[in-house]
Structures are given as C-alpha cells and as structure tokens.
Amino acid sequence: MEVFHKINAFKDSEEERLLKKVLKNIIESDKSVINLVIDSCNGKRGCTFSEASVELAPYVHEDFYADDFGLIPMKLLFKLCILEDFVGKGVDSAMDDKERAAAYLTIMEFIQERRMHGKAIKEISQTSDETSTSLTVALAQHLFSQLIPNKNYLVDGMAEKLPEKCPHCQANIEAGNTSLGSAFTWHGRAEVLVNETMAVRIVKEDSSQNEGTDENFGEDLDPEVKKRRSETEELPDTKTEICLECGDANKNVLLDLHTIDKVVAEAITNSFAQVNTKKSLDDLFIPTFSCSSDCVSVFLYHPTKDILLESTDLLNLWNVTFTENLLSLHTVVWLWLFLNFTTFMVSGTQLEENVKLDKSKFHEYMKDRLKFYQNLETGMPFCVKEAQRPVSEDLKLYCYIRQPRE
C-alpha cells in the first residue's frame, strides 16, 4: 500500500534517527500531568467560554505525600510498548499497522520540513494584526494540521480579518463553523478544530487588551497568574491552593487565570460533544490545546469517567540557536502524540489500572444539569456568535472574591 511504500523510504534516514532519539527521551521523561478537581464553576449558567469561571485544586491523597500530589508521569498516558518498538526497530515496527504507519510517516515528513514550517509560523504570526487571526492561521496551517495524517483542520469562519489563503504557502485556509456547546452549557467557538475532534485556543500575548470588556473585567485588580507546581516545589498548605500570586501578568499569557478558565470550559464542553458524537472515543481522554506564539499547554478531559488532567509544564515551541529559531523537536513530537491520541494514548480504564485518579467532580457539581452536556454534539448552531456581557460592579466583585488567596 502507498503509506507503507512512503514510510519505507525513511528507513535508516536522518528523520528516523531523530524520531528514535526523541521518543527514547520521552520514554525516560519526567514530565508530568496533574489530576485536577473542580471546587466550583459556573458551568450551570449557560454562559460563553469568555465568561467561564472555574476554581481548580489538585487531587491530593489522604496521606499527602509528594508522590501523591496529583502528579502523573506524562509518558504513562501513552502506549509505551509501541514507542519502545519504534525506538528499537524504526519504521519496520509499523509495517504491519496502517494507522501507526500513517502517523509515523506524518511526523517524519514534518521533521523533514520543520525549518520551512517554523519560518512560515514566524513570518505569518509577526504580521501586524490587532487580532490573533494571523497567529491562528500560522499555527493551524503549519503546525497542528501538519501533525495528523489527513491534515484536517477548521479555523473559526467568523474570525476577524481571516485570509482565504495562507500568506506563506498560498494553501486554502479551511474555515467554517467551530461552535461548541449550547444555550444551556458553556459555549463559544474554538479558534481551531483539528481533525474535527480537538479544540485549540490561540492566545495572543496582548489579548487582554483586544478581546472585549468581558475578557479583562478584572483589570483594576492585582493580576493573578496560575503557576504549575513541580515535585521540587513546596507543597501548599491546603488542598485548594494551586495558584501563586505573580506581579507580572505578562510572564506567560497561558498561565493567566482567565485564560485557564476559558480553556478548561472549552475542554470539558468539547470532550462531551466529541464522545456523544463518536462512541469510539468513549474511554479516551480528549486533548485540548492552549497555545501562544511561544508555548503550548495541554488539557485532557475524560467525560465518561469525569477526570481532568493538565500538563504541569508549558511546552516551548522554539529552540533558539545562534542563527535561527527552530521549532522544538521535542515539543513537536509531544504534540504529535497527543494529536494522534486514538493511536498512541491509553484508555482511561488502562490509566486507572496504573495510577490513582480522582474525579474532577464536574458531574457531581452539575447534578441534574449534566444532561445538557451529555446531549451536546459538535457544530451546534446556537453559539455561532459569542455574546459579550456588560461589566458590572457585581461581576468585578465576584472576580475578586473567586481569586485564590495566600
């Protein structure tokens, strides 16, 4: 078959060697995800992602040992035997499996063209644009879609200043309805839907000044930034403290409290819609990505088991050399594994057999209104346009009260 013929051409190639090396590092990696619990949220209100409010806490076992602090080795999310097989045998390990062969072919072709895609992303995203559309186009066309075999993606068709063609390669930009949710749930539009399954939220560094009043309704308050904890950091005094105050709100836009609220709401909403539409995803974690021009954060939600995970570290998009910025090969391969989750990720049941997991308690919190999420489908027409709400003093007070305290 054609895919086996194409992948066989990479046997003993530099791309195969690099992929083996990165997968070996991933198998030995100490990167982790954190098992999160929802203390409270406004998912019952039927509001937009921009209005979402989610209080998160790490899952902590009663013994409260550091190893039990909700941290799970990220590599355990994946079928390590498959990755180890490639490290040992290279492309020969996939010659009896069309799905894996297509995935490996995709990543090796990307490695081959990595310099070109990195240059395209830099050129397009640096275009003068008050919106995040240019960055969205760059990342959709030259990163996320290039890491899946069918290259399928959809950019929000209602995005401002959306070009018909990619400014770099002149490929047609695939745009359309990326609506998620309903009038009775969190709802809005994903900036990008990859393979009609995974939502990507693109966050521009100065987006707080550009996305409308409900995006910066706490502008008079001291900025709060969520910060991931690692095993080497001091454990919090309580189970609900996973945020640290940071004086510089621009340290990384992906760690902004309101950004995380929106991404969690989008991750949960989209995951329900995907599982309701595609029963084959019923026991899988659905990835959602939060992406800036420099970094990526990954959220995973299992709507059937009600388990919420988040990557503890941001994945840096770029390797800076003396002569140029190259897309980080390690980050690209991590993204490729998540984007091809149906091929490489273990099921929720398999993960529970290896690690202790707690429910996010979203099901418990929603109670009788959970049925609205369990009936969601993708592309529902209600939320074609997100409504903006006026900023009231009550809303500002609510924002102040819900922020974490030392």
Care to describe what's here?
The longest helix is centred in the middle third of the chain and has 21 residues, at 257-277. The strands form 4 sheets. Strands 1, 2, 3, 4, 5, 8, 9, 12, 13, 14 and 15 form an 11-stranded mixed beta sheet that branches. A two-stranded antiparallel sheet has the order 6-7. A two-stranded antiparallel ribbon has the order 10-11. Helix 2 packs across helix 8 (329-339). It has one domain. By secondary structure, it is an alpha+beta fold. It has 13 helices and 17 strands.
Major sheet description: 11 strands, mixed
Uncertain runs: 63-68, 207-250, 383-406
Mean pLDDT: 82
- The tally of structural domains comes to 1
Amino- and carboxy-terminal Cα gap: 60 Å
Beta strands, count = 17
Portion of residues within helices: 25-40%
Radius of gyration: 21 Å
Strand content: 15-25%
* Structural class category: alpha+beta
Coarse morphology? globular
Q: So how many helices?
A: 13
Order of secondary-structure elements: HHEEEHHHHEEEEEEEEHEEEEEEHHHHHH
Search tags:
13 helices; 33% helix; alpha+beta; 406 residues; globular; two-stranded antiparallel sheet; disordered C terminus
Brief characterization of the structure:
The protein is an alpha+beta fold. The chain has one domain (2-402). It has helices spanning 2-8, 14-27, 80-89, 98-112, 114-125, 133-144, 257-277, 329-339, 341-344, 348-354, 362-366, 370-374, 393-402; strands spanning 32-41, 54-58, 71-73, 153-156, 175-176, 179-181, 187-189, 192-194, 198-202, 224-226, 243-245, 286-291, 295-302, 307-311, 315-316, 318-320, 325-327.
